[in-house]
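Bumping my old thread because nobody answered last time. Still need a sequence for this structure:
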């Protein structure tokens, strides 16, 4: 499953979109909950 699919299915896509640029720590936390690999998290949340 892609990261976007994981975000959508989990119901976290709207929250992630809101915090992606304003609260990088929270965005990374959400991705970790979804078991996204650390290198990919760093690429997504720059």
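Sorry it took so long. Here it is:
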């Amino acid at each position: 499953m892609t990261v976007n699919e994981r975000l959508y299915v989990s119901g976290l896509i709207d929250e992630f979109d809101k915090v992606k640029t304003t609260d990088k720590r929270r965005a990374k936390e959400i991705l970790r909950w979804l078991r996204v690999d650390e290198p990919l998290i760093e690429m997504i949340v720059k």
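The chain has a mean pLDDT of 97. Let me know if any region looks off to you.
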